[in-house]
Write a structure and sequence with these properties.
This protein is mainly α. The chain has twelve helices and no strands. It has one domain: MetI-like (MetI-like fold), CATH 1.10.3720.10. It is 78% helix and 0% strand.
């Protein structure tokens, strides 16, 4: 690679970084504006919009509601995804490609089509719109991501680990819980955090399957109908910071678990 090519690639990289970061920085700044309207210049600054988020009962209730849905749907997706990944990895049987394709299908279906399908299915089975309908749809949508991450981790599991456990008298169930599952911990943490973020930020499925109590993205959408305001910027900034902290924690946890698994 020539020097000019390297410089060009670096310029493209930093242009992409600025393209991502500048809008986020502007969004954060607007949350400090001492005015009800979005726009420059910012003549005076205030923390009232950020402090008001924590004092707004509707926002905090929607935040807790979204977190509960995210945790519950992630737990279901992890349980189903790990089971499917273990069943499909290292085994060859007729129809394996079909099963894998059907498992990954929810990840590639457009969000609106998926939401409409879930709404129709919920009506057919008699499930009322609300929290459990949202959890069900989020869990099914998140299973493919767990399966992909766990299958990738399983392919690196040395066969000697399981053989050694069986030589010591462990049956397949004990081997799974004492050897395979701990080895999968980094992938489960990474996949779980990713699913939580997907569920927490999901708008389309939450909108179509929600009841009278809105999730945080649906609440923000409702506030947007009356126009942009620094309050929305403040809410978005707080969610962005919490999401970044959760991602950093997950990344550090995955590294630590991977190192411990390698040392063991």
């Amino acid at each position: 690679m020539t020097r000019n090519t390297r410089i060009l690639m670096q310029c493209i990289y930093w242009a992409f970084v600025l393209y991502l970061l500048v809008p986020l920085a502007l969004m954060m700044l607007m949350g400090f504006k001492d005015s009800k309207f979005i726009g420059f210049p910012i003549r005076s600054w205030t923390l009232d919009w950020y402090l008001g988020v924590f004092g707004d009962a509707a926002v905090m209730q929607a935040f807790g509601y979204s977190m509960f849905i995210a945790v519950a749907s992630t737990a279901i997706a992890l349980f189903m995804g790990v089971w499917i990944a273990v069943a499909l990895t290292g085994r060859s049987f007729w129809g394996r490609a079909i099963v894998l394709g059907l498992t990954l299908l929810p990840a590639v279906i457009p969000g609106v089509i998926s939401a409409i399908s879930f709404r129709i299915a919920a009506r057919v089975i008699g499930m009322e719109p609300g929290m459990w309908a949202i959890i069900w749809s989020h869990a099914i949508h998140n299973v493919p991501f767990v399966v992909l991450v766990v299958m990738a981790r399983l392919t690196t599991l040395p066969k000697s680990y399981g053989e050694a456990a069986q030589d010591l008298g462990a049956d397949p169930i004990i081997t799974f819980f004492r050897v395979t599952l701990p080895y999968l911990s980094p992938a489960m943490v990474g996949g779980g955090v990713f699913c939580m973020l997907l569920s927490f930020d999901d708008f389309v499925r939450s909108f179509f399957l929600g009841g009278y109590e809105p999730t945080l993205p649906v609440l923000i959408f409702a506030k947007l109908r009356s126009g942009m305001s620094p309050e929305i910027n403040a809410i978005s900034t707080i969610v962005l910071v919490l999401t970044a902290l959760l991602g950093l924690w997950a990344e550090r946890s995955m590294r630590g678990m991977s190192k411990r698994a390698a040392n063991d």
